[in-house]
Specification:
The complex is a heterodimer of chains A (323) and B (257). By secondary structure, chain A is of the alpha/beta class. Chain A has two domains: 5-224, 3-Layer(aba) Sandwich (Rossmann fold), CATH 3.40.50.300; 226-303, 2-Layer Sandwich (Alpha-Beta Plaits), CATH 3.30.70.1560. Chain A contains ten helices and 14 strands. In chain A, helix 3 (95-105) packs across helix 4 (110-123) and helix 3 (95-105) runs parallel beside helix 5. The longest helix of chain A has 16 residues, at 169-184. Chain A is globular and about 70 Å long. Helix content of chain B is 76%, strand content 2%. Chain B contains eleven helices and two strands. Chain B has helices spanning 3-23, 25-28, 30-51, 59-89, 94-97, 103-129, 140-164, 170-184, 197-203, 207-220, 227-251, and strands at 53-54, 57-58. In chain B, strands 1-2 form a two-stranded antiparallel ribbon. Chain B is globular. The chains are: A alpha/beta (323), B mainly alpha (257). The A-B interface holds A 14, 49, 52-56, 73-75, 77-78, 80, 82, 84, 86-93, 97, 100-102, 104-110, 149, 153 and B 1-2, 4-6, 8-9, 11-13, 16, 19-20, 23, 86-87, 90-92, 94-102, 251-252, 256-257.
Chain lengths: 323, 257
């Protein structure tokens, strides 16, 4: 089966001296929810810009669903939808007009476009705003408008460049839900984000770009399985005076009623509770501390050593357990 | 995209552009009407009556074709330069760059938008001129042909200006320091027969002279320049500038980093 996206030896050099991309190779399978991560200036946006014909490449090849972006540009572009990082619609145009114009650029007749626009705007809760000028929308609405615009021609591959930047948690979660549904319906999605829990919770595969090179490209499961230790935050029933020493656990006291516990992933949670019970410590609830991907990301990007996984790595899923 | 889809995309760009200048009609349509009314009052009625005839016509009759053409030129140019520069500045040009629209369709769409405004302003100025003079058109086909070609030529020129423009100053430098002098010295207000041989020869290097005179021939039936020479030169200029504009768009100059 052809790849949704195949990048071969892609290079971009600005002004003959700034090497934004140093010959990256990347493959994204059809139907994937793919995370493309990297620090600011790593080369993510340049790569996306080249894929979407917004930046000229220096060298390399790109295929979108088997269509070469250079020799079969129109077919390749028909498959692509982009939600860019910055708001880039004409703020003086009404919401509905922005969608209809975008559909028109893909050669979609107005009647068909109206039907699709209505469906998308209703789904993204913007239908009531369809006649408002775009500059009157809130930040979250503008983000959703950009998603609707990117989907108006039903792209097979949707690229989202930090779609939830600056969006409050409620809207962010509703966008996650929408994107997950979209992916389940068959749209391949590539996501760049600085919210690593977003990538961890939604994406199946991941690539990390650092200084113009792909330093890691693997499945999310494989990447996270490299972690050996997880950290939990425990809320205690009674205040703790002194921190006990428990063999096989590393404990840190946060305040009188809460602890952090590092546990080797090879051990069961029962081991944790047994160890605490021996010291009459009773746990009311527990949760994972931060996100594991963040620790891995820092390890890969800042240290540049893929195999050096930090000792204290924690998880994201909120699995509250009553003890 | 097939022909039908290209037509939809072309129509989308033109409608978008027409809606843009209609939305801001106070900035785009009213000023030329006011300015040309002042020209007709001052140069036509007040000063014109003292100047007397020019090439056998009342002065106001003589300058009307030139003033209409001046409005068409400046409005065709400024519509495209402003529209495409804004699309670049605020990023919505990306809506088209990411889509499969052929570059020819993008270019023709913007040219169509510029022509729509240029011709609409030309019609408004023509209507205003009817309050000052009885306008009869001697050669309607030549008049319309020169009008359309000139509007197209300056729409393309505006597009090229917008491609290279990096800030708002860059979109006003050419109209102020190039277009306006060329227009004023292009025989809008006088016949080049009034000039010395040397300055007549120099004037022949001004492309606007051919457009103004071609249009004047269409309306009055008299001109300093053979209208077919005007047509020929306008076609050559248009083809040349279109080729340049298309190559710039294809290469991504000013639009793709």
């Amino acid at each position: 089966m052809e790849k949704a996206l195949k990048i071969t030896k892609l290079k971009k050099t600005y002004d003959g001296k700034i090497h934004a991309l140093k010959g990256i190779d990347l493959e994204v399978e059809q139907g994937d929810f793919f995370a493309l991560l990297g620090a600011n200036g790593a080369g993510k946006s340049t790569a996306i810009g080249i894929i979407c014909s917004l930046v000229n490449k220096t060298a390399g090849e790109i295929e979108v669903f088997g269509h070469n972006l250079e020799t079969d540009r129109e077919k390749a572009q028909e498959c692509l939808g982009l939600v860019p990082q910055e708001f880039n619609f004409n703020v003086w145009e009404p919401v509905l007009e922005i969608l209809l114009n975008q559909a028109g650029f893909y050669g979609i007749d107005r009647k068909t476009a109206l039907g699709r626009a209505e469906e998308l705007l209703k789904h993204l809760e913007l239908w009531d705003k369809r006649n408002e000028q775009a500059n009157k929308l809130s930040g979250g609405m503008k983000r959703r408008l950009m998603i609707a615009r990117a989907l108006i021609h039903k792209p097979k591959l949707l690229i989202l460049d930090e779609p939830t930047a600056g969006v409050d948690i409620e809207i962010r979660r509703s966008m996650w839900k929408f994107l997950t549904q979209l992916n389940a319906a068959g749209t391949t999605i590539i996501l760049t984000t600085h919210y690593l829990e977003e990538a961890e919770s939604m994406c199946h595969n991941i690539a990390i770009i650092n200084k113009g090179e792909v330093v890691e490209s693997t499945s999310m499961k494989n990447l996270l399985s490299r972690l050996s230790i997880e950290t939990f935050v425990l809320d205690l029933k009674e205040p703790l005076d002194t921190l006990p020493e428990v063999e096989g656990l590393t404990l840190r006291q946060i305040d009188a009623n809460s602890l952090e516990a590092d546990i080797d992933k090879s051990r069961s949670l029962n081991f944790l509770f047994e160890g605490l019970s021996k010291h009459n410590i009773r746990v009311m609830s527990m949760r994972n501390k931060t996100n594991r991907l963040e620790e891995l990301f820092i390890s890969l990007v800042e240290k540049g050593k893929v195999n050096e996984i930090p000792e204290t790595v924690t998880t994201t899923e909120s699995t509250e357990v009553q003890a | 995209m097939n022909t039908q889809q290209n037509l939809v995309a072309f129509k989308t760009i033109i409608v978008k552009e027409v809606m843009r200048f209609l939305r801001i009609w106070v900035q785009t349509l009213v000023p030329p009407a006011i300015m040309m009314t002042l020209y007709f009052v001052i140069f036509g009625n007040l000063i014109g009556s003292r100047i007397g005839d020019m090439d056998g016509f009342n002065y106001i009759e003589y300058i009307i074709p030139g003033l209409i053409m001046m409005s068409v030129i400046t409005n065709s140019y400024s519509n495209v330069v402003a529209a495409f520069f804004n699309a670049k500045m605020y990023g919505h040009v990306q809506e088209m760059l990411i889509s499969p629209i052929p570059n020819h369709v993008i270019l023709l769409g913007y040219i169509g938008g510029g022509m729509a405004r240029g011709i609409l302003v030309g019609v408004i100025v023509t209507i205003v001129s009817l309050f000052f003079s009885d306008l009869t058109i001697k050669h309607p086909l030549i008049t319309i042909g020169i009008l359309l070609m000139t509007s197209m030529l300056f729409s393309i020129a505006g597009f090229i200006n917008a491609v290279y423009a990096k800030n708002f100053d860059d979109i006003s430098i050419v109209p102020t320091f190039v277009l306006t002098p060329l227009t004023y010295l292009g025989g809008v207000f006088y016949s080049i027969n009034l000039l010395s041989d040397f300055w007549q020869t120099v004037s022949l290097a001004n492309p606007v002279l051919y457009m103004v005179n071609g249009f004047r021939y269409g309306i009055l039936g008299e001109s300093d320049i053979n209208p077919w020479v005007s047509f020929g030169l306008i076609i050559i200029f248009t083809a040349g500038l279109y080729t340049i504009a298309y190559q710039l768009l294809k290469k991504g100059t000013g639009t793709r980093s």
